[in-house]
Amino acid sequence: MQTKTDTHHAATSQAVALPAAVRDLLWPASRLGAQLHIGADALSAADFGPPRMAGGSWERRKWSQPLGGLWTSTLIDGPEGPTSALVEAARKLLPAWLKRGTWSLLTPDPDALVLVIDTGEAMKKIMAHFRYQGTPEIDFVAVERAGIAGVHLTARAASGRIDPALRRFVATWGCESTVWLRWVFPAPPVALAVPAWIEAMQAAQWAQALRATNQAHEGAPPVTPGTTRLWLDPPYAGVWLDL
């Protein structure tokens, strides 16, 4: 039976085989710290799906994210309760998304390897080795096969004066966040209480956000009668949400 140690050694061996320019972009997950995930249901390892690349032409998708995997943002102990860069971005741009349901605290294996995008130069190095079929997209499946547990966009890369080499990528991820390509959380997720300020927001604010989002999205499938269908673009998990 393969143990956690065996799996870690195999991943480390795969990463060692990478070019030095890529190895220099790897962080141990301990540098990220505790992570916050927001989902519709309680989270468990059984729910995790391996990454896969979306079908269809890139020009139609214009995504910089895989299907599958798990999205998180670094947990911040804020004055109003738990938060993250992703929560604060959604608070301004898409508050309805924050009412999805379960907030989970995740602590990654400190030795898991994370590919870090911190500068435009880092992105160029990543694309030189992990470009997906000639598109301006990272091949997340190839990243996972190289023994890398996740891809992380730093707060520095996502804020301030955006490097031209990162502009499209940051536009789709939006803020500091990580997509985990492997389940590397030894302890079960811890459910957190949803901050009171979310429940206190007025229903009119949710409705306005939903209308604006639906109007902005083209090509949405028909809405189920009696519900509002919301398309959550990256970095908001990229899923349909019927409300």
Estimate percent helicity.
25-40%
Query: Biggest sheet, strands in spatial order?
Result: 1-7-8-9-3-2-6-10
Mean pLDDT reading: 77
Compute the number of helices: 10
Order of helices and strands: HHEEHEEEHEEHHEHHEEHHEE
**In oligomeric terms, what are we looking at?**
single chain
Number of domains: 1
Q: Please state the overall shape, judged from the principal axes of the Cα atoms.
A: globular
Major beta sheet, specifics? 8 strands, mixed
Q: Structural class, judged by helices and strands? A: alpha+beta
C-alpha Rg, in Å?
18 Å
Number of strands: 12
Unreliable segments of 5+ consecutive residues: 5-9, 213-243
Q: What is the terminal-to-terminal distance? A: 44 Å
Strand content: 15-25%
Explain this structure to me?
By secondary structure, this protein is an alpha+beta fold. The protein has one domain. 32% of the residues lie in helices and 19% in strands. The protein has helices spanning 4-16, 20-23, 58-61, 85-93, 120-130, 140-145, 155-158, 167-173, 196-200, 203-216; strands spanning 26-28, 35-39, 70-74, 76-78, 81-83, 102-106, 113-117, 150-153, 177-180, 190-192, 229-231, 240-242. An eight-stranded mixed beta sheet has the order 1-7-8-9-3-2-6-10. Strands 4-5 form a two-stranded antiparallel ribbon. The longest helix has 14 residues, at 203-216. The termini are far apart. Residues 5-9 and 213-243 have low confidence and may be disordered.
Short characterization:
The chain is an alpha+beta fold. It is built from ten helices and twelve strands. The termini are far apart.
